[in-house]
Design a protein that fits this description.
This protein is α/β, with parallel strands linked by helices. It folds into 2 domains: 287 residues, Rossmann fold (3-Layer(aba) Sandwich), CATH 3.40.50; 99 residues, Rna Polymerase Sigma Factor, Chain: A (Orthogonal Bundle), CATH 1.10.1740.110. The chain is 33% helix and 18% strand. The protein is built from 10 helices and 15 strands. The strands form 4 sheets. The protein has a 9-stranded mixed sheet, with helices on both faces. It has a two-stranded antiparallel ribbon with strand order 3-4. A two-stranded parallel ribbon has the order 7-8.
Length: 400
């Protein structure tokens, strides 16, 4: 049994947001996979039923050769280029990249962005109802991997009748998914753009994730993961997790440039523990707004999936084996001040692709914006990706 639900744009949205949605021709959809189509997970269990929430922009051409799959990062979602239903923010989280005339040109490509498995924006995750108990899954939801996320995405692409993708692109955890796609489905990925990512999660990054998870689990409102059944929300723990993570997304230079030691709405320190400094106020704001749009258990599950990611481990410990005989065209992008996924880790991917005789381009963008640079206004990144995508489209036979 399969069901397909199409969700029209919110007619009551403010005019500017509505025009933004119309500008990119955004359509929100949910695809349901019933008991006859279970998802086999790396943990050895199957998930069934489940659903995937996603958005599409632009139109699929007659030969179905112009599809672009955008893979989002840890706390991202399917709203890459449209108004977010919870925050009301128009334009989406990748408004600089996706839209008419932009590097991912929605007048030219059929763009798909899906909410990953285990998340909380419509795709099945721990906050959803377990049909076996009629209660939220909580910690009974199976632990998932990046491979599981990509396997579910492939099922969605199959359902859409698309044999292969012109491009798979994503930053951070989205880059992990992009690498997994290229390794697991080499004949289905014409071009791949992993940005600010790594082929495996480092010990330092696992450590930061564990701090966040422990903050959530230490919140008395977590209730062993069963907080929804208790009518509670571990919002304080989740806010602290977000604050800690957000520091890793920035660089020291960016923190100094934006905040320095500037005081927040005061002329001198208070000799107390209010937010004396602008950076303190900023982090508290990031934490408070995050809990309004994200589920705490989803944070646990998705960070764990990132921790488990080690692409070489699936290929006898040799990363180049993951790309053996690949025909995919790659463009690897890193940023000089990204200490979460430093250029050295991106170079390891490039070296593995070179060892596999792959078609690979690499660029390191000079910026002081840290890991978050891939989400921000970075003209060099835009021009690089526009050039790569245009060249790949010409090679694919897609007319401009």
């Amino acid at each position: 049994m399969s069901q397909h639900h199409e969700i029209p744009a919110d007619a009551s949205a403010e005019a500017s947001a509505a025009s933004e949605v119309a500008r990119v021709n955004a359509i929100s959809r949910v695809e349901y996979f019933g008991p006859d189509t279970p998802l086999a997970l790396d943990s050895g269990v199957s998930l069934s039923p489940f659903q995937i929430a996603y958005e599409t922009y632009g139109s699929l051409n007659a030969s179905k050769s112009n599809a672009v799959l955008i893979c989002h990062a840890l706390t991202g979602d399917q709203y890459a280029a449209s108004r977010h239903p919870l925050t009301g923010k128009p334009g989406g989280w990748w408004a600089e990249m996706v839209g008419p005339g932009l590097p991912i040109d929605t007048d030219r490509f059929f763009v798909i962005c899906q909410n990953v498995l285990g998340s909380c924006m419509g795709t099945t995750g721990p906050k959803d109802i377990d049909p076996a108990t009629d209660k939220p899954y909580g910690l009974s939801f199976p632990v998932i991997t990046i491979g599981d996320m990509v396997r579910a995405q492939a099922m969605l692409i199959d359902r859409l009748g698309i044999e292969d993708l012109f491009c798979v692109i994503g930053g951070s955890m989205g880059g992990m998914q992009t690498l997994q796609w290229a390794a697991a489905y080499p004949d289905r990925v014409f071009s791949a753009i992993p940005i600010a990512t790594a082929a495996r999660h480092s010990a330092q990054n696992i450590a930061f994730h564990e701090v966040g998870r422990q903050a959530i689990m230490a919140d008395p409102d977590w209730h062993g993961g069963a907080y929804l059944a208790e009518g509670a929300n571990p919002s304080k723990g989740l806010a602290v997790a977000r604050m800690a993570a957000h520091i890793t997304y920035l660089s020291e230079a960016a923190l100094h440039r934006k905040f320095g030691r500037n005081l927040q709405n005061r002329e001198k320190v208070t000799y107390g523990f209010d937010a004396d400094f602008q950076i303190e106020s900023y982090l508290r704001h990031q934490g408070m707004t995050f809990v309004d749009r994200f589920d705490a258990n989803s944070y646990l599950y998705i960070t764990r999936a990132m921790d488990y990611f080690d692409l070489a481990a699936d290929y006898n410990g040799v990363l180049a084996n993951a790309f053996k005989n690949t025909r995919t065209r790659f463009c690897i992008v890193s940023f000089t001040t990204d200490w979460l996924f430093p250029t050295s880790e991106n170079r390891q991917i490039v070296h593995a692709l070179n060892a596999a005789a792959a078609n690979v381009s690499f660029v390191e963008i000079e910026t002081d914006k840290g890991h978050d640079a891939f989400l921000l206004d970075e003209p060099e990144m835009f021009s690089t990706l526009r050039g790569f995508i245009d060249a790949a489209a010409t090679r694919r036979g897609l007319n401009a």
